[in-house]
Amino acid sequence: MMSLAGQTYAFLMTILAGAVVGLLFDLYRVLRSAFRPKQLVTAVTDLVFWIVVTPVVFAMLLAGNWGELRFYVLVGLGVGLLLYFQT
Q1: What distance in Å separates the CA atoms of residue 59 and residue 45, rounded to the nearest whole number?
Q2: How many CB atoms within 10 Å of residue 2?
Q3: Is the N or the C terminus of the chain less surrounded, counting Cβ atoms within 10 Å?
Q4: What is the rounded CA–CA span in Å between residue 78 and residue 82?
Q5: Res 64: pLDDT
Q6: Neighbour tally for 30: CB within 10 Å
Q7: The pTM is what?
Q8: How far apart are CA 33 and CA 58, in angstroms?
Q9: Which one-letter DSSP state was computed for residue 1?
């Protein structure tokens, strides 16, 4: 069983991962609006975005809580995204 400090660290890492996903998504949106790609290119770049984001989130989850997928991980990712987009 993890200590309270370990659980807090894991939750904060998931919040940070959510904020990183928000930042990467904003960068992707800026690039997409600057270049105005066609529908097919948009679909391909959406796929590339998720291919890039998935390992980033996985690495952060490995660093934060050994990659365990629990409900608080989803909550932390959502809170991180929300905090990023609110600031």
Answers
A1: 22
A2: 12
A3: N
A4: 6
A5: 87
A6: 10
A7: 0.87
A8: 28
A9: -
pLDDT, tens digit, for every residue of 43-72?
A: 999 999 999 999 999 999 998 888 888 898
pLDDT confidence of residue 66: 87
CB atoms within 10 A of CB 81: 19
Tokens of 56: 């980033």
Beta carbons of 28 and 49 less than 8 angstroms apart? yes
Rounded distance, CA 58 to CA 61, Å?
A: 5
Rounded to an integer, what distance in angstroms lies between the CA atom of residue 6 and that of residue 51? 29
Torsion of CA 23, 83, 81, 2, to 10 degrees: 110
Average pLDDT score over the chain = 92
Is residue 71 helix, strand or coil? helix
Exposure of 65 by Cβ count < 10 A (0-12 exposed, 13-18 middle, 19+ buried)? buried
